Structures are given as C-alpha cells and as structure tokens.
Amino acid sequence: MKYQQLQMLFFSGTGNSFRVAVWLKELAIEDGMKAHIAPVEEIKKLQNIGKGLNLLIGIVFPTHAFTAPWHLLRALFQLPHGNQVPCFVIATRAGTKIGPFAFPGMEGTAAYLIALIFAIKGYSVCGVLGLDMPSNWLSLHWGLSQKNAEYISKRAKYRIVNIAERILSGKCYFSGFISLTLGLLLLPITLSYLVLGRFFIAKLFFASYRCTGCGVCAKNCPIGAIKMSGKAKPRP
C-alpha cells in the first residue's frame, strides 16, 4: 500500500531532528504525497485519525542518555488513539568522526520505547531506527569540525533516502536491536544520568566568547532551558 499523506512530528533542540523531518517531508512530496511537519507540542492536533485516510505518521527526536527525552515522553501522553494507523520512529543519535574514522552513536532504548508507546496507543508500528547526526555535545565529541559535521549529515541523508523509499511505499523497516540490548543493560546509568543531567550537568553548559549574544537559541528552545545571563553582554 502506498500512502497519500505523511504527518511528521519532531522534537528538536539544536536542529538535527528537525532537519531529518524536513528531509522526509521533501521526499514524501517528491513521491506525490501530501506532507506536513509539526513540533511534538502540537500532538493534540492529531484528531480523527482513521484507516481510510491512507495516512502515515512519523516521529523524529534526539536521544538523551541512551533513551527518549522526558519532554517527549510527557507529550506522548496526549497522543490520540491511533486506530491502527501506521507509524514509524526515528531517534537521532550522536554520530562522530575523528580523522578518517566515523563512529556511530547509540540510541539505546530511545526508539523502541517510543515505538512501544505508539503501539499501546493503538498505532501500527512499521519502522524503527536510530540515525547518526552530528553530535551537539562538543565538549565530549571534540572531533566535529564543520567538514566532519557535513560528512555525517550527508551520510544520514543518504540513509534516509533509502529508508524512506521503503517505508513510504508501505513496507516495514526495523533496526537497532543491538543498541536496544545495550540500552537495556545501561538502564541504571541512564536513569542516573537523567537526574544528574536535569539538575546538575546542564548547569555546566555556557556560551564561549565567540557567542554574539543574539538570544535566538533562548527564544527557540522548545522547553525554555536556555537563559540569557550577564548585564553588559548577556550570553546563554
């Protein structure tokens, strides 16, 4: 079965997941489908979902501590019943490249946890995968020059094109079982990190002197996590 409509939901902080949602929208339109993307905060607008619409729903979001972000989990509580409408899940993860070597990230339980929630809500899950995008934790993944980031993005888009060709035509695609297994083994670390990250680690991030202080990041952060600080030249 070939779908007629694609509804993409995204949750994105620095733009990786949003970029993937845009790629999928463009590929769907090229394939003759109607396509729309919306932030996950608009999830309530998914009303009157039914089989007769030939609708495919996708969601893309970043991995946090080898699982799905708290904000996304809270948003999905408002997800309307799916009536077995097909959906697919993409978790972006921190891909890196050091010298000639590219290293994959690990989404852990992120993708399959969200897929499970969709299944419980009555959707028919037809795709689950993790996708390497340029890491945004530059203090940890230091090998990310602009050239490396462009390399990782190019590889990601190539993979999305191949996967979209399969999913948009009505077929299924599942991957990431090794990552899921490792994620389950790392659950104690994940839970500890989520708490530490929320109350302590996040406080250690601040802008360097290269920041212009424009405030765009603070204005566009989907959960209001960024504050402008300083009298002479406020910076994030």
UniProtKB/TrEMBL annotation:
Instruction: Return the SUPFAM superfamilies for the record.
Output: 4Fe-4S ferredoxins, Flavoproteins
Pfam annotation, one family: Fer4
What's one GO MF term for it? Answer: iron-sulfur cluster binding
Q: Which InterPro entries match?
A: 4Fe4S_Fe-S-bd, 4Fe4S_Fe_S_CS, EFR1-like, Flavoprotein-like_sf
Q: Where is the 4Fe-4S ferredoxin-type domain?
A: 202-231
Q: Does the keyword Membrane apply?
A: yes
Q: Does the keyword Transmembrane helix apply?
A: yes
Transmembrane annotation, as ranges: 53-73, 110-131, 172-196
Q: Which UniProt keywords apply?
A: Iron, Iron-sulfur, Membrane, Metal-binding, Transmembrane, Transmembrane helix
Record NCBIfam families:
ferrodoxin_EFR1 (NF038196)
Please state what the protein is called.
4Fe-4S binding domain-containing protein
User: Which organism's genome codes for this protein?
Assistant: Propionispira arboris
